[in-house]
């Protein structure tokens, strides 16, 4: 290991030490959301570490939502919810550099399919009839983009369209999980959004909406066929399967 690598490992070790100290202080003292933690100076003195290491750790804990630095009050413990947990996965850099193998893409597709079809099943079993207005509005915008061949903006609305499907389950946990799964696969499906394919993709979307309005269980198989094409490694993209 070179000197730079050794320095980075040592720095990470010091930051981890600070994190352990802060977490230990929280649990030992039974702190609750809104309670004040030790100050930077106190942590630095207790561990005999530089304030630079302490600030780096505090910055990381702040980024994940565990603590918050409040002007004039110091470090405050946040309330950690499931939304806080999911926000950790939404960093743009993570999505940009995430490497997906063909198996990863298939696994993500399977999970996406489970979530979307489950959401549809919940909707079909419910008495709801007025939950499709957002989807209808998106479809009209997508139709215009389809006619103009605007693939980039169509993809953005496609993301919202499928999120509107998931939202039919009225389950924030599923919605957040779906959002995490959806973004990394955008790079894998972007080839499918060519001008030649937009018309067929739009037909799928309209068919999904139509079957949801009628509460026709055939919508489940339509979604499955739609995702089978859209979510796959770029190297395996072929013609769109027939819409049946």
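Q: What amino acid sequence fits the structure above?
A:
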């Amino acid at each position: 290991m070179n000197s730079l690598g050794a320095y980075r490992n040592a720095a990470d070790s010091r930051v981890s030490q600070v994190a352990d100290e802060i977490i230990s202080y929280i649990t030992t003292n039974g702190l609750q959301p809104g309670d004040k933690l030790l100050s930077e100076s106190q942590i630095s003195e207790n561990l005999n570490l530089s304030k630079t290491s302490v600030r780096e750790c505090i910055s990381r804990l702040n980024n994940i939502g565990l603590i918050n630095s409040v002007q004039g009050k110091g470090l405050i413990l946040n309330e950690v919810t499931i939304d806080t947990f999911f926000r950790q996965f939404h960093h743009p850099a993570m999505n940009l550099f995430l490497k997906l193998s063909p198996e990863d893409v298939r696994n993500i597709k399977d999970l996406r399919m489970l979530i979307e079809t489950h959401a549809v099943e919940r909707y079909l079993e419910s008495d709801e009839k007025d939950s499709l207005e957002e989807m209808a509005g998106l479809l009209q915008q997508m139709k215009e983009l389809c006619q103009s061949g605007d693939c980039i903006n169509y993809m953005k609305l496609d993301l919202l369209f499928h999120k509107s499907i998931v939202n039919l389950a009225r389950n924030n946990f599923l919605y957040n999980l779906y959002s995490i799964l959806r973004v990394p696969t955008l790079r894998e499906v972007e080839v499918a959004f060519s001008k030649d394919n937009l018309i067929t993709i739009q037909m799928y979307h309209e068919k999904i909406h139509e079957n949801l309005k009628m509460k026709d269980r055939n919508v489940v198989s339509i979604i499955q066929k739609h995702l089978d094409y859209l979510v796959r490694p770029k190297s395996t993209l072929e013609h769109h399967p027939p819409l049946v």
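Q: And what stands out in the fold?
A: Confidence is low (pLDDT under 50) at residues 1-8, 237-244.
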